[in-house]
Amino acid sequence: MSNVYDKIASRDSNEKEFLQAVGEVVDSVKGVMDKNPQYRDAKILERIAEPERVIMFRVPWMDDKGEVHVNRGFRIEMNSAIGPYKGGLRFHPSVNLSILKFLAFEQVFKNALTTLPIGGGKGGSDFDPKGKSDAEVMRFCQAFMAELQRHIGHNTDVPAGDIGVGAREIGFLFGMYKKIRNEFVGILTGKSLNWGGSLIRPEATGYGSVYFASEMLATRGEDLKGKTCIVSGSGNVAQYTTEKILELGGKVVTLSDSAGYIYDEAGITTEKLQYLMQLKNIRRGRISEYADKYSEAVYTPVDTALDHNPLWNHKAECAFPSATQNELNAKDAQNFLNNGGSLVSEGANMPTTPDGVDLFLDNKILYGPGKAANAGGVAVSGLEMSQNSMRLKWTREEVDAKLKTIMKSIHTACIDSAEEYGSKGNYVAGANIAGFVKIADSMLDHGLV
Ligand code: NDP
Fold it and tell me: With respect to CATH, is domain 204-373 assigned 3.30.1380.20?
């Protein structure tokens, strides 16, 4: 088995995030492979870890001063065994092949868990929308779509947003696709409500992560009421995670961005959250401004000399990492445990480092990995695709009810699969195994393609 990992590692030795994601799955499905020799004979693991297609392209665009810039665009079409490729676009200077392959790989399993017919993909660019004017972002999006449009389609590959790609970017990307192709089809999700978007899509990842946390707590006869929660990030996922925690009676004391974090011991209220949304989504400001506005909050800038992030070192029962990959390391995990932490629900993708995950598992806390806990976003994207195909629109209540049902069924699938393979209560093993078996069986059905 480790033979499979070793081969992948030797071929892609410089892709550390991708190898981290593959290593975890290879570990989790060892028992499945032993029980099912047909998977080994068909080299399912080797095939799952190799993208069906990687598209890399040049994105030339012009800034407001007339200067030309060249960024790199990507789309990883990872696995289409159970449906069209589906997964977000990330615009961030850190974007590279390793990060997008890890995200696409995770997406394959996550999408399988949603119960919807969607394959896995991911894409993006090393373009940084931060500090750019709306006109610059529009020109970049148009240049990006000028190439991407030939590779996607509503039955082929349906991207969505991710870090740096929100409603504004999706609008510009959609507009360019429509102009070039002269067709109005659901080739992107996360669209605005006026032109094909689904109610609850903006909220879905954050709400879903909190629904998943509630399911985990219910296994111990508990709920979120009165619990103190640490949330990282301050973008789409963090905002709606906070909103749902408040609705369910929990208290949120932190939020962050790439420059630092705020600690608000009194708790973030609905009014403060409204301010934060305005700050981040409209003014595109920094989290430090929250502490300028609310003097009871303390702002701590990022200190790269530290071996841990003080954000995770506050007294709290629950943590919702909702910013980015590897943002919570073993030291952070230990600090969280020392402070009495007993639940982690990952809104972000792979936010905990492998040694941090081991600590959570060893201490038997409720640990919901991103693949399962943040699947609500892509699930409602899948529901957006359904509504587009049927050319109708479900109500807010209908979509929210479907989201809840999906998160519940993901939770059950994790529990059942973990138990079947001797890892009771281990949501990492459960998510990996449940997703893997569904994809593996579908791949076998399709023959060697
Ligand atoms: P946004 O761009 O809306 O927000 C990202 C947040 O994370 C910002 O606060 C950003 O700070 C912070 N951040 C980004 N990169 C870093 C970094 N390197 N170090 C510290 N902070 C960072 O993205 P989303 O909220 O959509 O995504 C957050 C996470 O959730 C990602 O891991 C994404 O893959 C995952 N996810 C998102 C889904 C969705 O539906 N949007 C679905 C499933 C998972 P700053 O503004 O300073 O950059």
Answer: no
